[in-house]
């Protein structure tokens, strides 16, 4: 999954940067999202893979200070946990609203499209975007809530993979490879079709 994430996002970046026809504002978002997905995956997944392969629970000093310290203290950690969750929720609200409000406008515009085929195509595209978005937010939220409720390492590991690997792997397919111009450029980049541009 990690290799598909890195390779898929690299293909998107290379396709957009190599084809001058794709140097338009509407392709800036997929390109910047691919850069973001690569950076996010490279900062979290390799260490997770090392820990899985070594099958140990060793955490570096900084990571230890950031995580399990609340549990080691001999005081009541309810207030500390509550503050962590409140700050996390506050930081989640701004991106969430930045995604929901544009989609409200998109849906209202799509409903004004006269043809049913156009509506279906628009809702199909928006549906795939929203499914990845909801997967990322739901699993991220569950990761934080479940860590406070249960100590199951198996559930935490599954949630972490769903939160930190799967959305980044699906983004190249949802945001770029469904686009006809991107498909042509990717095929030319891979050498499957001759260059006609």
From TrEMBL:
Places the protein is found: Membrane
Domain of life where this protein originates: Eukaryota
Family matches, as PROSITE patterns: G_PROTEIN_RECEP_F1_2
Chief place of localization: membrane
The UniProt record lists the keyword Disulfide bond: no
Pfam families per record: 7tm_4
Coiled coil: none
GO molecular function terms noted in the UniProt entry: G protein-coupled receptor activity; olfactory receptor activity
Membrane-topology annotation of the record: Multi-pass membrane protein
The keyword Membrane belongs to this UniProt entry's keyword annotation: yes
G-protein coupled receptors family 1 profile domain location: 1-175
Signal peptide: 1-15
InterPro entries named in the record: GPCR_Rhodpsn_7TM (IPR017452), Olfact_rcpt (IPR000725)
Transmembrane segments: 82-104
Keyword terms, alphabetized: G-protein coupled receptor, Membrane, Receptor, Signal, Transducer, Transmembrane, Transmembrane helix
A Gene Ontology cellular-component term: membrane
Protein name per its UniProtKB record: Olfactory receptor 7G1
Annotated source species: Sciurus carolinensis
